[in-house]
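Hey team,

Filing this mostly as a record. A colleague (T.K.) asked me to run one chain through the structure pipeline before their review meeting, and I want the input and output archived in the tracker in case anyone asks later how it was produced. No errors, nothing strange. Just documentation.

Input sequence:
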Amino acid sequence: MTTYLAAEANPTRNTGAIRLYDEAAFAGMRRACQLTARCLDELAAIVEPGLPTEAIDRFVYDFAIANDAVPATLNYRGYTKSVCTSINHVVCHGIPNDKPLKEGDIVNIDVTFIVDGWHGDSSRMYPVGRIKRAAERLCDVTYRSLLLGIEQVRPGGHIGDIGEAIQTFAEAERCSVVRDFCGHGVGRLFHDAPNVLHYGRRGEGPEMRPGMIFTIEPMINIGRAHVKILSDGWTAVTRDRSLSAQYEHTVGVTETGCEVFTLSPGGLDTPGLAVDGSAGSAD
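Output structure:
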């Protein structure tokens, strides 16, 4: 049975109950999420062949400090970087290092900033120079999957509605949905209830109610869905080494539908990519 509670009742611990936030909390989330979105916008100008992902990490850290924010991943459960950079067959949690990006790579950059105690969480795909059509198509399918998931967010709907929309579309495009990772509640806590699966059945899972805040972040593979974790304990890769892509937004359930907190202020939600953003079939 799903339990809901006013967010102020227990702000510092994940109890499994779903928090319902008020308008003041929504305002705090807007500030945190828009700072994250601004950082992701500015990264579009520096991602290029030859750039080490360590330089991306430094950029994100410096951006946070300059704007009175804290990178949420820094020292989170032993993670030592300010950002995750996941390249090509890396599904998520790629650790920045001194290896340079190469022409034709695709890289997911996942940023979470803490601003006045609120967590703004978002990620985007970036092409490195000129990329192959298969990679661009995967990014297209993944972004459209995210948008279709967001379209399901409304009071009275269920978390399973989001998963079904994403799974149905992605699998119809001959791609697979990663099941090992999911979206999550977010707010004062980095990771909170509910889990937001990117597969499932309509009408299943917790009911969405006004005040809920969570991420939707589908990870879509061009090959099989199977994932393994490398020896560093963080980096998740596709077992068949096929390309993987991910986009992520933080959303809130309103009285009438959905607010997307992490939209790009510069219109760069798919930087450098010819992504349709409609619900039609990808070529």
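Quick notes for T.K.: The chain has one domain: 19-260. The domain at 19-260 is CATH 3.90.230.10 (Creatine Amidinohydrolase).
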